[in-house]
Amino acid sequence: MYDRSAQFYDALYSFKNYEKEAAKLHQLIQTHKRSTGNDLLEVASGTGSHITFLKKNYSVEGLDLSPQMLKLAKKKHPEIVFHRGDMVSFKLKKHFDAITCLFSAIGHLKTRRKLGLAVRNMSRHLKPGGVLIVEPWITPQQWRKGSVHANFVDQPELKVARMNISKTRGRLSVLDIHHLVATPNRVEHFVERLELGLFTHDEYLDAFRRAGLETSYDSEGLMGRGLYIGTL
Ligand SMILES: C[S@@+](CC[C@H](N)C(=O)[O-])C[C@H]1O[C@@H](n2cnc3c(N)ncnc32)[C@H](O)[C@@H]1O
User: Fold this and answer.
1) Segment (H or E) for 197
2) Contact indicator for 194, 172 with CB cutoff of 8 Å
3) Distance 102 CA to ligand 1 centre (A)
4) Which residues pair with 41 in a beta bridge?
5) Which of 23, 53, 127, 216 could anchor a disulfide with 35, C-beta 3.0 to 4.6 Å?
6) Residue pair 212/123 in contact by the 8 Å Cβ criterion
7) With the CA atoms of 91, 92, 96 and 100 taken in that order, what torsion angle do they form, in degrees rounded to the nearest 10?
8) How many A from CA of 124 to the centre of ligand 1?
9) How far apart, in whole angstroms, are the C-alpha atoms of residue 10 and residue 107?
């Protein structure tokens, strides 16, 4: 997962407005948080692009499963503490005022059981009155099997064409993502398979409520995928 594509991640997602997204997160955290501190944990922090802006208002730490992603994030933010861990099972000796898990990273969990465990595990790391914000992957109802997707990078010394066809296996969305990458040294092709759980709105809400969170839903969210917001 992301092993070979991590180095192109920022170029591939340069269309995302992380600054605007972080501004909305800040506003939501301030609205829903009842604890008084500003410690924030970014779970599945990727290359740390939200952290670039969140660190202006919060004392931030990051956590991700992928060593490649962590390496890129640490290079971008040498002053920030990053942890290697799985959102389902990580254990930190610290509690936070806000925990975020964004850009559908939660979808990497393939079962409802793991979704529930991850939401509970993240909520266990909140201070009383702290807030958990999760940006979901799309629902089974929204998933369009057979739809065709492409994304291109056109920089002077890096060209990437990335394509996939949406497939389904039971309640999993399966994305075999083909990358054709040109740098001054060579042109290479590789495929990365991502399998993401298709959870319903009720399943996300259920996971939040079972974790003891007072929960609300913002249907627009950061980029149209919605946001689940829970306060402990
Ligand atoms: C789509 S990227 C999102 C990265 C970042 N949040 C962003 O908005 O750009 C998904 C991230 O989730 C991480 N990830 C996947 N499964 C994970 C897990 N079980 N625990 C922690 N991180 C995970 C991946 O390594 C990757 O960095």
Assistant:
1) strand 187-197
2) no
3) 8
4) 61, 99
5) 127
6) yes
7) -60
8) 19
9) 20
Amino acid at position 102, single letter: L
**What are 128-177's pLDDT values in tens digits?**
999 999 999 999 999 999 999 999 999 999 999 999 999 999 999 999 99
- Give the tokens for residue 198: 């298709």
Residue 27, classified by CB atoms within 10 Å of its CB into exposed (0-12), middle (13-18) or buried (19+), is exposed
**Helix axes of 201-210 and 112-124: crossing angle, nearest 10 degrees:** 40
Give the residues surrounding ligand 1 with Cβ less than 6 Å away.
2, 44-46, 49-50, 64-66, 69, 86-88, 102-103, 105, 108
Distance 197 CA to ligand 1 centre (A): 14
**Residue 167's beta-bridge partner residues?**
174
Mutating to test ligand 1, I would choose from 4, 43, 45, 83 the residue with most ligand atoms within 8 A of its C-beta, which is 45
Q: Supply the pTM of this predicted model.
A: 0.97
Helix/strand/coil percent split, the chain, to 5 = 30, 35, 35
First to last CA, the chain: 32
- 189 CA distance to ligand 1 centroid (A)? 23
